[in-house]
Structures are given as C-alpha cells and as structure tokens.
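Task card 7
Instruction: Convert sequence to structure tokens.
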Amino acid sequence: MSSLFSSLSISASGMTAERQRAEVLVENIANADTTRTANGGPYRRQDVIFQSQDVGSPFSSIFDTQMSSQGTGVAISQVITDQSDPERRYMPGHPDADKDGYVAFPKVNPAEDMVDLLGASRSYQANVSAISAVKDMIQRSIDLFR
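Output:
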C-alpha cells in the first residue's frame, strides 16, 4: 500500500510541474506582441526546465519504518528566459519604433506555444488518470479487508 501512496505523490509532482509549465506558456502567448515591458524592450519568451526529484509520500510516513518507499517525480529546476535578439519589424508609425522605424517584437511563436500547451494539458490529464487508477486500487484493497 505504501508504494500506492508514493504513486500518488509522483503523479501530484507531475501535475504541479505541468501546471507551472502551462502558466509560462500562457504568459508567452499573451505577450506575443508586447513591445514594451517594465524592464524596457520587448517581452522575452520563457521556457521551463524539468528535472527528476525524489518524492516521498506524506501519507505513507507510518509505513516508511517498514519499507523504503521513495519514487522519482518531476519538478521545475528553472525557468529560462530567451536572450536572443528580438525580431525587428518595420513599423515607422508605432510608438515603440526606433529612429529607423523598426520595432522590436518578442520571438514568440504562438502556434508552437499552443502545441506545447496542448502537450502540457495532456500530460496533466495523464497524471489525473494515474491518480484515479491508484485511488481505485486503494479502494478495492480496503474493500477486500471488509
């Protein structure tokens, strides 16, 4: 039963990481045309970097004395910001145009970020399905003891 509780923690870590990834992707999409930020210059695209992380289950602390039950989950190690040069478009009437009439736009591809967002959503749903399966197994185990 202890490993079932660890499975819940592993899936929960995946759900947390995918939610944070989705937030970053939505921010990228929302700022695809932002030419001026508080820091100056155009918005800079962000990406998340996942890393494996040991996950213990808070539910199975009683069983930990009898069994070693740690799994490997996922966490976000960092959010990196794109440092490449922004895309320049000739728009002389734009308020953020430079002296030559060019405006710096973020290097954000909304179609690519939408595909990544769909992947994050499906990964989140896969973790929800895994948690539901573990929950059903725990319930069946309890029913067997009756």
